[in-house]
Every structure is written in structure tokens, then in C-alpha cells.
Amino acid sequence: MITARRMAVVLTAALAVYFVLLAGRGIDLIASGTVVGVLMGVAILLLPVLGVILTFFEWRFGAQTEKLARLLDDDGEFPDTSALPRRPSGRVERDAADAYFAERKQELDEAPEDWRAWFKVAQAYDLAGDRKRGREAMRKAIELQLR
């Protein structure tokens, strides 16, 4: 069975191969000796560097999120969403996701400095399909847990 972690490793490995190939093209352009070639080669070499930095931050975010999930699970507080009704695609039905979010938001309003509440709200955002707000809430949970 392919887990999210295995898929991330496979995709990161493919990305690493791409970065190496891209860097090779940049070096070839620099070796051409022409002004345009050198400038384009330097610009192309910046792309793998930027890619490695962004990949590092994504892996760090994933590791921190996994750590918080483990802490919640160890305390018996990891939210169980298996009973929520789902569409044939596996996504939680919209009304159920909205109701679940309202419950988690209520918990957050009662304890705005609790990383556990932020984690649960992040999960609720994800269930509702709002990945951007979910990631923002998870960043807040990580920040609060690190304090």
C-alpha cells in the first residue's frame, strides 16, 4: 500500500533527478561562454536551488504536522472522522464537514492558545476542502506547540 510518506519520498526523488538534469543544462549554458548563455545558465541554476529550499520547508512542515498528530494520538485526542458521511469519491459530505468545522471552531474559540484546538481546526478546514486555511491553522498549531 502506498502511504502519503512513500508517495512524498518518490516525488521528492523524481524532483531531485529533475533538479540534477536542470543543473546540468545550466552548467552547459554557462560553458557555452556566450553572454546570453552564461546569464541563462546562472538563471537556470537558481531554479534547483530554489526548489531544494522549498522542498526542505515542505518536508519540515510535514514532519512537524506528523509530530503534532502523534502527540494527539498518544494522548488519545486525535480526532476520529471515520463516522462522517462520505461521497463515493471519499470526500466528506459538505454539510457534515461544515458541522464538524463548527464544532472544532467552537473548541478553538474556547481555547485560542491551545495548539490542539488549532490542529483540529486545520483538520476541519482540510475536510471542508479549504487547504489554504488548513495550512495556516496548522502553522499556528505548530507555532503554539513549539512555545
From TrEMBL:
Per UniProt, the keywords (alphabetical) are:
Membrane, Transmembrane, Transmembrane helix
- Classify the source by domain of life: Bacteria
User: Where would you find the membrane-spanning parts of this chain?
Assistant: 36-57
Task: Return the protein name.
Answer: Tetratricopeptide repeat protein
What organism, scientifically named, is this protein from?
A: Allokutzneria multivorans
